[in-house]
Design a protein that fits this description.
By secondary structure, the chain is mainly β. It contains one helix and ten strands, in the order αββββββββββ. It comes from Gluconacetobacter liquefaciens.
Amino acid sequence: MLDRIESLIAMMRRADIVSLAIRDGDQTLELRLQPYGREADQRSSVSPGGDTASCQPVRSPEMGRFRSVGLPTDRRVEAGDILGYIDIDPVRVSVIAPMDGWLGPALREDGIVVGYGDVLFTLTGAAPR
């Protein structure tokens, strides 16, 4: 698998994929790239005193089978945290939190096929009550 890293990275860049995991038998290769045009520390978040009622959908980055990582509802997450995966045999694409916030319940069941852009979760800036 290591001999394919350069071509995999090129494919990831063309498809705007930032996280990739490939399983081949007992071997696993995981790649994570910084998105183009972003600084490493640039994050979308709710600022103190800002709009704490903001709500952000977390959308599926690809079409495939949704896999939950079992995070509890109302958990605080940070931009870049992995919230789940989309399995596209044999590729696994991470579902990434787009901002800091509080995680709402999963809107799709684990194992169900989802489309590109389907809303999987919502994040809110306000703490749950």
